[in-house]
Design brief:
alpha/beta; TIM Barrel; 6-stranded parallel sheet; about 10% strand
Length: about 425
């Protein structure tokens, strides 16, 4: 399914007078502060967030899953749905695939389809946290850390196969997230499990193409509840550092214990040039995978404040991070949820771009916490939605993506095309 461009123009035209007024006012406000709205818009247009293939269907918890209907059942359908999101938001210019669910049949046809939507292939993701019907060995007691060399080799071979598929599609990175760990004291030798994981990752790292990156993701608990082999940013960084220059830590917002200072983690990893990727979501208690910015928008802004500081530091050696939404949707229409997440990410990014960094640094040097707070919160409290809307308008997107999605009855159209009982793979 593709949106008729003329329909989108007509929907935008109805909201254009109000938008022009709001954008004009904000531009003047920013100009008085020495900020050029057009320069911010250029940065917003360039900021693209990958959509994971598994987020396009209704997610769920261990208690149940409630299908939205019209879910994508094939890789081609998933690419089409990301194409719809990108056409509306002009912010979702890449798709991230999960193997084994997203193995391409005809690689050239899949690449051509993605290209027709203006999409690139972001990091590919391996899966050694579930058993597949055709695999010889079980991952019940771990994968890359397993005591049995045969199990470890099976997991290594899977990751190397994922690299092969990604390379054929034009991806440039592999994300490894492991469920490996233990649920009971005494179950696992912590040191040996970590050493086996490092050894396994070294074999995977050796199979990377020259221009690829390896992202090592971490998580403190779940599905194991006593220990996780790669439990925090420190263990992730240790592994990435030992692997080599092509290995980096990946930060997932939901993969932290409550009240963790994620912005400090981001700043530290960027300081040493080892922040490779960032997964966006939101949470109240744990890895809740809720809509980005739904609960903690100020924390998201503070994180972006550090990200922008690192990205705009001319002395930084950190590569440009890979951005992706990693969320699971059980109540909302997944497409609407992703559009809302994209908006929240861009809002926080735009607000962080407005921070007066020279004044903030001066306040820090003068030990003036009150002024430092004022500088940050003045940027955070600025309504930057007209900037985002203008960036989309200039890129032929929708002024109001969720509103346009509903006006165009896209979910109804998808149900008519695919049926009401379809279930997306990869969840």
């Amino acid at each position: 399914m593709r949106i008729d461009k003329q329909q989108l123009i007509q929907i935008n035209d109805q909201a254009l007078p109000d938008h022009r007024e709001s954008f004009g006012h904000l531009s003047k406000v920013l100009a008085k502060k020495g900020l050029d709205a057009n320069e911010v818009i250029k940065k917003l247009q360039a900021f693209q967030v990958a959509i994971p293939s598994w987020a396009l269907g209704t997610g769920g918890t261990r208690f149940g899953r409630f299908s939205t209907g019209g879910e994508p059942g094939t890789l081609e359908d998933k690419i089409g749905d990301v194409g719809l999101l990108h056409q509306l938001s002009q912010s979702a210019g890449a798709i991230s695939l999960h193997i084994p669910w997203d193995i391409p049949g005809d690689v050239q046809a899949v690449k051509a389809l993605a290209d027709s939507y203006g999409l690139a292939f972001d990091a590919v993701n391996s899966n050694t946290f579930q058993d597949q019907a055709d695999q010889e060995h079980s991952y019940k007691f771990g994968s890359l850390c397993h005591v049995d060399k045969a199990v470890r080799q099976q997991a290594i071979d899977h990751n190397l196969e994922v690299i092969k598929y990604g390379d054929a599609l034009g991806s440039k990175s592999l994300t490894v997230w492991l469920a490996d760990g233990s649920s009971f004291p005494g179950q696992l030798n912590f040191k040996r499990a970590f050493q086996r994981t490092l050894s396994s990752l070294q074999e995977i790292y050796a199979g990377l193409p020259a221009d690829w990156k390896l992202f090592v993701e971490y998580k403190p608990y779940e599905p194991n509840f006593y220990s996780t082999v790669i439990q925090d940013w420190g263990s992730s960084h240790m592994l990435a550092d030992k692997l080599g220059d092509k290995a980096y830590s990946l930060v997932d917002l939901g993969h932290h214990l409550p009240n963790t200072n994620i912005e400090q983690i981001v700043a530290t990893l960027m300081m040493v040039g080892k922040l490779g990727g960032f997964h966006f979501n939101d949470s109240k208690y744990g890895d809740d995978d809720l809509t980005v910015g739904a609960l903690k928008p100020y924390q998201l802004f503070l994180i972006f404040n550090e990200l922008v500081d690192g990205m705009e530091d001319p002395t930084s050696t950190n590569p440009y991070p890979a951005w992706m939404i990693d969320a699971s949707h059980n109540l909302k229409d997944p497409m609407e949820d992703l559009l809302q997440s994209l908006e929240a990410i861009k809002l926080a990014y735009a607000q962080a771009l407005l921070v007066d960094r020279a004044a903030l640094e001066e306040a820090r040097e003068n030990n003036d916490p009150s002024l430092a707070q004022e500088i940050l919160q003045n940027a955070y409290r600025t309504d930057v939605r007209p900037l985002l809307a203008e960036a989309r308008l200039q890129s032929n997107g929708a002024l109001d993506p969720v509103g346009a999605y509903r006006r165009l009855n896209i979910r109804k159209e998808l149900i008519s095309l695919r049926g009401a009982k379809t279930i997306s793979t990869g969840l």
